[in-house]
Amino acid sequence: MDDGMLPCRVQCINCGAAYPPSEIRYTCECGGLLEVEHDLGKLRSQVSRELFDSRNSSFAIRHSQIANCSGVWRYRELVLPVPEESIISRPEGNTALYHNPHLAQWVGVEEFYLKHEGENPTGSFKDRGMTVGVTYAKLLGMKAVACASTGNTSASMAAYAALAGLKAVVFIPEGMIAFGKLAQALAYGAITLQVKGNFDTAMALVREASPALGMYLLNSLNPFRLEGQKTIVFELIHQLGWEPPDWIALPAGNLGNTAAFGKALREMKEVGLIEKVPRLLAVQAEGAAPFYRGFVNGFRKREQATPNTVATAIKIGNPVSYERAIRAIRYTDGVVFAVSDQEIMDAKAQIDRAGIGCEPASAASVAGVRKAVREGIIRPGERVVAVLTGHLLKDPGATVDYHLGRLNGIKPTYANRPVTIEAGLREVERVINSA
Q1: What is the pLDDT of residue 433?
Q2: Residue 251 is part of which domain span?
Q3: N or C terminus: fewer CB in 10 A for the chain?
Q4: Are the beta carbons of 286 and 341 closer than 8 angstroms?
Q5: Cis amide bond preceding 83, omega within 30
Q6: Residue 184 lies in a domain
């Protein structure tokens, strides 16, 4: 790939060293994390609310216009300005923004919205990052892509690799992945390696294997993948008529979204798309909360944990994007919370009963908002958007086990148990009338 093809650079967040976009690199020589930097001064005169509004109603199916159909590539000048014919898209994005009065009352905020990234093609927000990461891998001439995953990343990468004609290799922690996610990786044809150990063990192995075996790494360590994920923020603010909320709450596991959201808000502010910067509320599970502990201690040292939570998508003890996420929290005057598995599953039950639904990790954002309201950090009159990261059917086992009271240490506060009856009309009537 010609470096002149992309008007951006890759830069270290620690020492500021810059690298050409054609160089396959995930960290700086100094060991620091990398970010894609655009010429925002130049882009200020090229992008506008009106430009993105004009692309928002395109439903063309011809490949020449597929970029406008995607909730990622619609914002391509701020993501990865490549020729449209090179884009690998399903398309993704265009996810709904929900307001449910009962749920708003339950969390304690009247103007409360859910941005449901589970409505992406493979059922999670990962598709936004993968469309960019896989597109970039093709531009680089790569033949294989790889990732470590607790499920959603592997499902998404496998799908987009299949679409692009690339070999996909996924490293998953043995016995620690929901079947709904494992099924996708297998179905889309990925070479699936079950690594003995947890996610962090699998992540260490894929980082070693990728350069050694000529595979392009597509975990959130990859700065180009985060360029796609930041469009969650572009799109939700666009859906709100370019009026930013006071808070954006999100689940926090490997911290790629936390980092991407902060970057998105900084860029939107610098190019003039928004005037006010929302505060971020990054929410971890108590059993996997190294970033929360770091926040409480003023980020004086990097924390790690041995993760243990029912929310498998955020069951990560050594988050890759830790330092990038710190920048996001500081830039937005953000807050980091930790919530219990009980709080997560109760919040999930409320989201599900609203007819919206999500996987357990997604519900951490809603549980976090409720807790922040109770502690006086979020005021009831503020406008809040909570991001749901994955579809209900990503982990149906956790849902069933909650309602049947089979999750260790978790009380099914809002259980909806099935009722066994004899095959007779009076029995049906009795159960219905007693509900």
Answers
A1: 94
A2: 97-120+225-403
A3: C
A4: yes
A5: no
A6: no
Question: Residue 111 belongs to a domain with what CATH number?
Answer: 3.40.50.1100
In a domain, 128, yes or no: no
Average pLDDT, the chain: 94
Domain count, the chain: 2
pLDDT profile of the chain (435 residues), mean per 10: 70 94 92 95 95 75 70 96 92 96 97 98 97 96 94 94 97 82 92 92 94 95 96 98 98 96 98 98 98 97 95 93 97 98 98 97 98 98 98 93 96 95 94 91
Q: From CA 35, how far away is CA 224, in angstroms rounded?
A: 8
Structural domain contains residue 197: no
Cβ atoms 1, 141 nearer than 8 A? yes
pTM for this prediction: 0.94
